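[job 4417] fold queue: 2 targets
>>> target A
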Amino acid sequence: MSIRSELFDGLKTIPGVGMVVSEWPKTFTTLPLICFQISDRAPLKNFTYDQESEVKVLINLWGVDKVGVSELALQVSAKMAQLGYRRTMEMDNSSLEKELKRIDMRFLSHK
């Protein structure tokens, strides 16, 4: 299974998620929304294995209220941990005057 498929299949199992996409959506009509991108996949040399990759994933969460997006962030962190990823960053990018609320997250794994 590809990394993209693994992420998509895992994230879409989170209850209450309206949409999971791997490209920036054209519209934000189905919320809450999870947008993920594999931001880097660099090969590593390892003494135990012939080769593995360091995989970096960027996830943007979108919703209509701050509490809902924050709760979704907790669920995403748990799901990504289950898939073997460690969260390296979480940042609230919501602004008070905008209707949509957003949290950006980064994850790292060796695959």
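>>> target B
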Amino acid sequence: MTTLTLTLPNLHPAQRKIVNGALRFNVLACGRRFGKDVLGQDVLMDAAIGGDPVGWFAPTYRMLIDNMRDITRMCRDITANVSKVEHRIELITGGVIDFWSLDVADVARGRHYARVVINEAAMVRNLLDSWTRVIRPTLADLSGDAWFLSTPRGYNDFHALYAMADERPQEWRSWRFPTSDNPHIPPKEIEAMRAEMDAVSYAQEILAEFRSITGLVYQDFSDDNLTDAEPDMTLPFELGCDDGYIDPRVFLLIQRTPTGILIFDEIAQTKRLDEETIRDLLEMCARYSKHDLPEGWPTMTNMARSAWAHSVGVKLPELAVCGTESVQLMRRFREANIPARGGTHLILEGIKVMRQLILDGNGVRALKVNRRCKTLVSELVNGYRFPDGGRRDNEKPEDLNNHAADAARMWCWMRSGRR
């Protein structure tokens, strides 16, 4: 008689604690790299090797393919047949593993399972509906059990299932484990992620905390980011710019400080020519340097105004940071002897940099905004939002109420040194 040996991954102590304490319906909220895929594969294979039919559910087809590949490799020595068309593995023990994508409606009808795993459950659209209408009926014939595995994504359907342990503790069990409970992840890697991520992302992705999602792009911006501090006009300062005419044109005056970044003033105007806005900027610089404007100022060119400013020691921006499309605005800056640089980047990458500066994983708020910057503050605390009030790290926010915020993002991406 031939004996086959199947080697399953060794579970670390936190994973083993979950398996030992499991009930019929199990919900795991865990940090990234905790090992939820390995845990899901272990519990699924345990039932399939015993000859039971089991199902693995993923949010998307792409995730399904990745999961199927991993499990196919794991059980290759005991596989009788693999169907890549039906996404089905048949084992020589009689066990069957089906793989389903929950981005397709009404999957798994007519199937019955002894165990199901719903991986990345927080990413499943309408998870509660998929559970009650599609997945739960497949467990009726065999009194099967279920495992919901995911990193949290706000107070969505996954959180509702997580809370079932309080409502029905006889059948439901929930756990929450941070990334640090995986002993195979070096602590220095977790500390690096803490420094690189904004506070909300770190709490959700690494600490596995459920966080309220308001829909604001920069929801960590708070009174702790506001200041009455004034710039040191003996030190350089720069501009962050978002061009516009019908939409507002915004200039932000920005200075690096010993402890971070200070946005100390703004100009926000509509239906003004770019040379007029630059004239107003030169006047603002004169006020900060405590110089009265010379006679003939209204009829001077910006080049002449800039020459006067240099001659009397008025501090001007050392650089204006603009979008690459702002060709004429950058030319006007250079005419006024203000260097200008255009740049571009993915909006979502720039948002990540801004969030880190607003509040990083160590609780540091490097970005401070003077309270006089009313347009910028209004956009950060109330106006700039995701489309439907949610927060999706892979989706662009609405292109509304964002002109000052975009000026800040452009400067922070190009000049803060955080990317």
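[job 4417] complete. Note on B: The mean pLDDT is 90.
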